[in-house]
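Usage example:
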Amino acid sequence: MANITERIKTLCPSATVEGYNIPVVTVDDDHWHALAKALHDDPELAYTYLVTIVGMDWTDSLGAIYYMMNTDADRILGVKVLAKGTREQPLITSAADIWKVATLYEREVYDFYGIIFLNNPDMRRLFLNIDWVGYPLRKDYDANPDINPVSIESERQSDFTKVYSRSADGTVNCTEERIFQPEDFVVNIGPQHPATHGVLRFRTCVDGETVKKIDVYMGYIHRGIEKLCETLTYPQTLHFMDRMDYFSAHNYHHALCMLYEKAAGIEISRRAQVIRVMMDELSRIASHCLFIGTYCMDLGATTMLFYTLRVREQILDIMEKTCGARMTFNYDCIGGVMADLDENFVADVKALLETIPANIKEYNTLFTGNVIAKNRLTDVGVLSREDAIAYGVTGPSGRASGWACDMRKLQPYSIYPELDFEEIVATEGDSMARFQCRVREIEESAKILWQLVDNIPEGEYCVKVPKVLKLPAGSWFQVTEGCRGAFGLYLESDGTTKPYRLKIAPPCLPQAGVVDHITRGFKIADLITIGGSLDYIVPDMDR
Amino acid sequence: MPYGEWKDNEYIEKLVQELRDSGTNVVVGSLDKLINWGRSNSVWPLTFATSCCGIEFVSLGAARFDMARFGWEVARSSPRQADFMMVAGTIVHRMVPVFRRLYDQLAEPKYVIACGSCAISGGPFRKSYHVAKGIEDIVPVDVFVPGCPPRPEAMIYGIMQLSRKMKVERFFGGVNRQEKLKDFLAAHPVEGVED
Amino acid sequence: MQALFLDTTGVHTLLTETLNLQPWLAVTIECLLVGVGLLLVYSVLALIYIYYERKICAAFQCRLGPNRVGPWGLLQSIADMFKMLIKEIIHLQHIDRFLFALAPYLVIIASMLAFAVLPWGDGLQIIDFNIGIFFLIAVSSIGVLGILLAGWSSNNKFTLIGSLRSGAQMVSYELSIGLTVLTMVCLAGSMSVSDICAEQSDLWFIFKGHVPALIAFVIYMIAGTAETNRGPFDLPEAESELTAGYHTEYSGIHFGFFYLAEYLNLFVVSGVASLLFLGGWQPLHFPGWDTFNGIMDYCPGTVWFLAKCFALSFVIIWFKWTYPRLRIDQLLSLEWKYLLPINLFNLVLMVIVIVYGLHF
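Running the assembly step on the lines above writes:
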């Protein structure tokens, strides 16, 4: 770690390094772009994967923290960039030319904080309406409903995007660029459309049946969870994790609890850890099963959905017995889990695990081995390893492109280091590989569960934590593995009972950002294939 | 299903009473009955889901809960062909115009079920800057199904209540829902659209 | 079998002699009667088919299917029909109103005309003339016109894409249907539906024509599925891609027409398949097996015909609920690169079989 700090010092002498669990380098905007380039290109540093950009408002100044990761090792680095200019027009130089996914992340920061990124090719709002007044995550945002009323009039739409750049004399210019040409045939797919897996909207420019360009619109289920978290106490923020990626409810809960425990210095019992990991893996099986089902349904094989839901229902039964709910469990809590396991838990899990190999065999016979499915999936939507990293596509989708990005292996947490499981990596990068990666991950999750199901240690399921939890001032960042990829969490605490800033970096946002890149040149029907194989959950990307 | 088991909804019982009190012509009455029988037994949903509740709606179609038993499985993707809209999930500011347009596109007679606490009141996201506080201000709602998300059994119960509501409606004469709807639309106008 | 034979001469005598009507008037009344009968049978059959598919689909998906409305859910599709009849028909602005209204009627008329040709029993058939099978192919292609008009006149991009897909698909697969029909007509030596049935009185064509007939049968089933726009060839209305495809903008009974026609086309396709390959209304006969043939004759022809149709429809429904959907380019290459050459080869094979008398 020390030599990296030194290297950064030599690259940028003005930078300061500090940090709690992750080193954070602070630079000003003038040195930022050169440093970013060096961090990305230097073969020794090679921070090629941008995890997220955390927009920040420290009331006196605005800024952004770029969290980046080395793809081969397990190093994470944060770079805090302070914005230049006034509060009305804060400026940061864009890193969109270095990490492709930064285009999308910077739009998000612009949307929430009004920070303008110079040279970003697409500086529009991401989640909010084009006419939205104010930047909601700023601390001085006026939430008066009269300013931004609920309107039933169709939102204004523009075919233009803005690009800000700094001219030689230091003034900032804004140029407008067209997204679609006037002669383009643009088909609007979504937000209410059976194939977008929720309320995502694609404006698709087509030539006959061939897709020429896609412009993704999000925010149709943007619920402002990050802002809401700032008004709630730490335990109260937990339940939002169930409602983002509702298939990874346990995994997200686990992640946030772990972050709070790390910050508060709480050590949880081994029993709680085992229970959490088991629930994570059960969720993963349920999630991937539903993926297989809905994906096949998108491709027209409706019957598969019912076969996969059978397994999911079985898992939901297990969870319901222990957690008392079918979907929004709210089971993990700070210090452990809410309640002890149901008495039949072990027997139920074993019964489930025994049915899984037969079910997977059935899925493969019905769908994977089908010649139509093969033709529809093979070589469709190929994502290369470099692009997967540049666009930040993690999870099974990234692993299908040959990028070993399983955070359970790269950033070992909880009891995962002790477990024996294989990281599923394919090299093809097409829709078929993405599909099969998920099918094989079900088997790996089952393997983990077999290791744990007979070895649940005795002990308390929840340690005592103070009723009113205060976290020490500081900032923490952590990346864990949800069902759909790397789930980043950034917490900044000012020492009170409420988080000063809780940034959620969901895995689905970059997956939506890559759709345009991998769909071009394919058919409209392939858009469904590709979108489905990426398996994004819209409430997760919108938060 | 025996009628006695279903007398648990005061609102519908009131409707039934009104209907009985006002009395009606034999021919028109039996025609009404026939039409209502058809309508209430053929309730086709629009595939509309924004978040978590939508997944429970998928479970509702699956083998365990099997809404096909009641004939609700013909989920239409086109609003023109659907009978009711199960508002499953949060409706946010940006979605409101889209949602309202979908409602306007539904062909009469159309019904709305607000499913889950988000659709009823904004639920856990009520205090958010970007969430509509319940869909009642946007469209008229026929049935509310509470829960976060409601269990599939609750959804079945909700749709059954809707079906009951259809049974006590009048196609000929009386104050029909279309007139009620006119009042609603007059109170919630859409600019540039003449109803 | 004779019991089910509908003797229309009786009606004719009644009209012309007992009521003393003019011949032209009598013919008009007869036509009307037949038309009303046709409509009735058509709609009842469509309702049965809707129920049939929903039950089969449920069985494939380990569900129960409709079982609450009426005994075993039998009245489900009737309830649906009542609902559909009184559902609002939405009038859109900025559309070609005339074509928009015309399209569903074209679709339903096409399927009804094709339906009229099917032989339900010995002589139990509405139109029987010497080019019956040719007429059937001709009228069934009117349907595509309706779909194209529906997609075009709705002024909606989804419907337009759906209808263009449909146009490409129907035109391509009609070729296959035409060629398989031609293959079988070669074997039958006639285009008249009743003659084709009569030819199969000793042995069904699928046995008589052995290899080429079997190839033709498989191709016909594939092309027939494509002609009815059903999965895995349901691209024109691919739900997950184009919401509801060409009929996205239709509501009420206009949508009902598309819905009915979809199911009736399924019946027509299975009916033609049973006519060409499985002997139409002819019972299962094998030359020389007199006792067996005698037993088979106890079952009336109409029952045979319906049973064959339902069995073949079952296969087509089975396709739909098993296979994923094809992509448009794969769909077209399947037709033009595989089915068409095989079909042409098969036609030659059939001619060789006939010329050298290699058939049974």
